[in-house]
Amino acid sequence: MIPEDLYYSEEHEWVRVDDDVATVGITDYAQEQLGDIVYVDLPQVGEKLEAGAVIGELESTKSVSDVFSPLSGEVVARNDSLDSGPEVINSDPYGEGWLLKVRPADEDPTESLLTPEAYGALVEQ
């Protein structure tokens, strides 16, 4: 199921914008493809992100995958609970499994992202 209140990147990250902060995570589709996530490497608070750039990695029992920034901005929070419990990404990718909170550099950070309908079409290919 693809939540209707989010925006998506082609690299399978999701974005939820609340006022001047965007929460970023990976989609249910992405966590399914990865399998059991055992380690998370994320940028620190204060780091600047560029849209499309590699910002970290997720390690699963199957492989290591890069995490791409779906938007440009500054990291204002990271989900430190993932350091000791990365498996929450598998069980709740749209809730407790969020990765970062970012203050977007662009006025409309969702402009270059996919709508839920467009993302649904991408993963059905």
TrEMBL record:
The glycine cleavage system catalyzes the degradation of glycine. The H protein shuttles the methylamine group of glycine from the P protein to the T protein. The glycine cleavage system is composed of four proteins: P, T, L and H. Keywords: Lipoyl. Residues 21-103 form the Lipoyl-binding domain. This is Glycine cleavage system H protein. CDD domains: GCS_H. The modification N6-lipoyllysine is found at K62. Binds 1 lipoyl cofactor covalently. Signal peptide: none annotated. The keyword Disulfide bond does not apply. Belongs to the GcvH family. GO terms for biological process: glycine decarboxylation via glycine cleavage system; protein lipoylation. Pfam families: GCV_H. One of its GO terms (cellular component) is glycine cleavage complex. Its cofactor is (R)-lipoate.
